[in-house]
Amino acid sequence: MKVSITVNGKTHDGDVEPRTLLVHYIRETVGLTGTNVGCDTSSCGACTIHMNGEAVKSCTILAVQADGANLTTIEGLAKDGVMHPMQTAFMENHGLQCGYCTPGMVMAAVGLLNENPKPTEEEVRLGLEGNLCRCTGYHNIVKSVLAAAGAK
Amino acid sequence: MAGSVLGNRVLRKEDPKFLTSGGKYIEDLNDEPLFAGALHVTYVRSTVAHAKITKIDLSECKTAPGVVAVFTAQDLGLDEEPSNFNAAAKRAHLAIGKVRWVGELVAAVVTERADQGEDAIERAVIEYETLEPLIDLEQAMNSKTLIYEECGSNIVMGTVEMGMPDNTGDELFKGCEVVVKGRFMNQRVAPCPLEARGSAASWIDGRLHQWISTQHAQGVRGEVAKANKIDAEKIRIITPDVGGGFGAKINGYSEELLLGNISKHLGKPVRWRETRSESMISLGHGRAQLQYVTIGGTKAGRVTAYQLNAIQDSGGWVDLGTVLAPFMTRPMSQGVYDIEKMECRTTSVVTNTTPIVAYRGAGRPEATAAIERAMDLFATEIGKDPAEVRRMNLIPKFMQTYKTKIGHTYDVGDYGAALDKVMAVAKYSEARAEQAARRKRGDKVQLGIGVSVYVEVTGGVDPMQEHAKINILPNGRAVVYTGTSPHGQGHVTSWAMIASSETGIDIEDIDVVWGDTDLVPSGGGTMGSRSLQQGGAAVQKVSIELVDQARKLAAQLLEANENDIVLDKTTGAFYVAGTPSISKSWSDVAKTADVKTGLTHEGTFVASSATFPFGAHIAIVEVDTETGQVKHRRHIACDDAGKVVNPLILDGQIHGGIAQGTAQALLEEFRYDNDGNPLTTNFTEYTFISAVELPSIEVIHMETPTFVNPLGAKGIGESGTIGSTPAVQSAVIDAVMHLGVRHIDMPTTPERVWSAIKAVSA
Question: Are residues A121 and A144 in the same domain?
């Protein structure tokens, strides 16, 4: 099927197999590998991106469903070489270790603050429940998100 | 930043890449020319736990779209190979004649695309004659059905069998005023690195190049050599970014070790990736130790005798898990206590389950959980506060070695101070008062307080050494080559800090290389909390020696006596003492050594012994006595890892360990049904801990340097899991103790807590 999908400001037109998941489209067709796959049950959130400004798990969406959509992945978050405040907050607060959950976690966190700019710690924890991390114990991730909220 | 940066909170050099474009994990290597056009391998796995294979029919697989080849053990010429830990146990990388756990590999299917393999394996026909599945440890121990017939028993290793003294039973407790017994199941858990495994293999000019998501490239190279029956020199292992390991990616696995052979047969590069569901049953599991404890002492609270009988589940192969009980749990079984009479017997048993490997803590969390739960039972029996009973029995502070009754010589320890610190921050007395008030009122939600004090062993696996090389390039930049293998631990930053503090070269101008065996042929990898104390110490050692060499070269350039040359460690400038205005840079010195390659020095740091980090944790939980629901409210941790190089990274290691320990205490368990079918094979069934189940963690710093290495550093990678697990478990039990509950096995799920309350109120 023919689709036209804009990823990080660049429009990609082409054919996709109907069963292609959006995450595989992003990784294999567009060639952006920052978005990761961590499970096969839509549980881990490593594949979180923004679709039309909203955080979504790109493994739960077919590429054809994203026809005409505007996507942002981790590669599109920094502007002109300057990191997004959330990326800076993760760096300053050691919100990542192995880095595998990080792209999805950062995209989910940005989505969270878009909906709730001044969350409490409890709200951050609830908001990130769908994004799993095995390294950090979430402590510094939560701290990063709260720091980014304060920095806005 | 340069100069004396050790001990500072330095942000990680590696982070911008991970945060802006993401790491380059194995599945991201889509433009690697060395394995361009690789075919995909998918494995046919056993669907039964224990059976003879009567027929393997892959004819239908061959006709599936995209299939290039199919292989059985016979097709690849595989033989059964003995286990490193019990030579009588033998198996091949693809099953020959028999399968021993659900998920074991039976055949390989090679396709043009990965998704074609998933479809093709559905067409494999494997016929089985099922055997009695042995899932329960004690059932396996006593069964006449043997998983490895040649072993003559399902017991594949034991301390008594190895000639260590047996436990004397109740004899040990003669004269004790109080004796308490317990049976604890330290349950099976899945390590769950967020990146599952993957690998690619390619033969280039007669040499096997293999990319692998591993914690120890140099170790895997030996396994790959054995699997391909070639010399290690003919193999290059390359480690891309690794998305977590937690001990489960130390060793090579059959899925990876077969790739060279398959690639050779086809004359093409091959690659393999696993799904999460595959990973849950074929990446090694952790813990799985059944413990019988007996503790005895005086009514006043002095513990005089302790006995542990540990039965270790090895799973379906005699893998690393087999040796954890005798060589990690047993020597640490005495913990932080001064106990007159100590005994520990361990028995490792094969079962029809996924093999057990070294999961974060690997044998030490089990040792700590056993004695900490025993201390709680003892304290309850004599009606005293568990923190007070611990304090009465702690080994007093020692800054020289302390020899335990059973196996180890600890380096330094100040356990009482760690306990004091956590009790002060927790406001222990106030928490107890609050608990008493809730009990008196008969509140629905009760408060539980759990205390643990621990000591563990790090860097203790032979050979206790690490290699490092430092190369100053003609442009003055430095490249550090290390035998450790970071996968989240921040060695790029910490090793740069160490090299910078000795050379004065800016951290930003120091690169760190690891995990490629052509570039770093010798190394011990990252495991057992060894990296800083051995790998970091090696970087420090070669940096110091390099500076000595550089001073000689600078002396030539400055036409001065070598003894008069000074290195300014904040700027990296060499000058003659007294005249800092005329100086030579690292670039000048490197070019003098060799105008093309610069100045290079390498060496090995050899540690005189393991180190013994220690600490204390307090967990405060709320338990809903009507539903059994647990809420972890506060976690206070004091973990002493000696001198700290980077507190930012130290805290991160502590947090992560505590989350994994808490996960074991509250939520996680890998389960099987009675037939050996795995029940928790994905993240909807396996209750991977999330941000919601954890509180923010209150970390207290304490630094008691070790004399074992010049950095004064001990390991921190595993401490969090070791201290937290018993603290959280004990807190849950403590919350319902007044109702008569004495023990709840982990994970303390709402169902288990509710059932325990019902059992005592019935």
Answer: yes
| pTM assigned to the model | 0.97
Cross-strand pairs, B630: B623
For position B1, what pLDDT does the model report? 42
Mutate to test the interface with A, among B194, B651, B667 (most CBs of A within 10 A): B194
Q: Provide the residue range defining the domain that includes B399.
A: 286-458+610-761
Q: How many angstroms separate the Cα of A70 from the Cα of each of A65, A112, B338, B632?
A: 12, 18, 65, 40
Please report, for the domain that includes residue A52, its CATH number: 3.10.20.30
Report the complex ipTM: 0.98
Q: How far is B489 from chain A (nearest CA, A)?
A: 6
CA distance A25 to A74: 15
Confidence of residue A151 (pLDDT cuts 50, 70, 90): low
How many other CB atoms sit within 10 Å of the CB of residue B208?
A: 23
DSSP type of residue B366: H
Report the pLDDT value the prediction gives residue B49, as an integer from 0 to 100.
98
How do residues B248-279 score in pLDDT, each as one tens digit? 999 999 999 999 999 999 999 999 999 999 99
CA–CA dist B527, B534 (Å, integer): 11
Contacts of B692 in chain A (CB under 8 A): 125-126, 129
- Asked whether residue B3 carries a pLDDT value surpassing 80, the answer given is no
B16 class by beta-carbon count within 10 Å (0-12 exposed, 13-18 middle, 19+ buried)? middle
State how far the Cα of B655 lies from the Cα of B649, in Å rounded to an integer.
10
Question: CB atoms < 10 A from the CB of A18, how many?
Answer: 8
Q: Is B692 on the interface with A (CB under 8 A)?
A: yes
